[in-house]
UniProtKB/TrEMBL annotation:
InterPro entries: NAD(P)-bd_dom_sf, SDR_fam. The keyword Oxidoreductase applies. It comes from Bacillus inaquosorum. Pfam families: adh_short_C2. Keywords: Oxidoreductase. GO terms for molecular function: oxidoreductase activity. It comes from the Bacteria. Belongs to the short-chain dehydrogenases/reductases (SDR) family. This is SDR family oxidoreductase. The keyword Oxidoreductase applies.
Length: 140
């Protein structure tokens, strides 16, 4: 059962990023256009998605396409709402974030909009960590 769950996670997070990025680049090439792909990396497949992002940045960059990834931290969504009903969990989240709060989907969307804009024309092959300071470390 666990191996099946891992297969599903890898398929959703890595295989989907591969197929969508590859097909977008093919379409843009066929249409004589260029574009920007933003992959979302999370949990166990995060490093694979980041590696794939770097590979595609090198592969598609010569045609003017940009590829980046986003590694979100704790984001409150319908799927995570139950965690925010538990006072201990809320305190744990606050204590372990430099900003003492958690993210909203709009935080991820803002980064994606920027990366897809012409203002980010020189950004490719990068991973953007949007985690409110979770990876900055715990305060001493």
């Amino acid at each position: 059962m666990i191996s099946r769950i891992i297969q599903i996670v890898i398929y959703i997070n890595l295989t989907a990023a591969f197929i969508l990025s590859r097909d977008a680049a093919r379409l843009w090439s066929k249409l004589g256009k260029r574009g920007c792909m933003n992959n979302i990396a999370s949990v166990s497949s995060e490093h694979a998605v980041i590696g794939l992002t770097k590979q595609f940045a090198m592969e598609f960059g010569s045609k003017g396409n940009r590829v980046n990834s986003i590694s979100p931290g704790v984001i409150q969504t319908e799927l995570t709402d139950e965690y925010f009903q538990d006072d201990e969990m809320v305190q744990l989240i606050k204590d372990n974030h430099a900003l003492h709060t958690w993210g909203q989907p709009s935080d991820i969307v803002s980064c994606m909009k920027y990366l897809a804009s012409d203002e980010a024309h020189f950004i490719t092959g990068s991973n953007f960590v949007i985690d409110g300071g979770w990876t900055a470390g715990k305060k001493l």
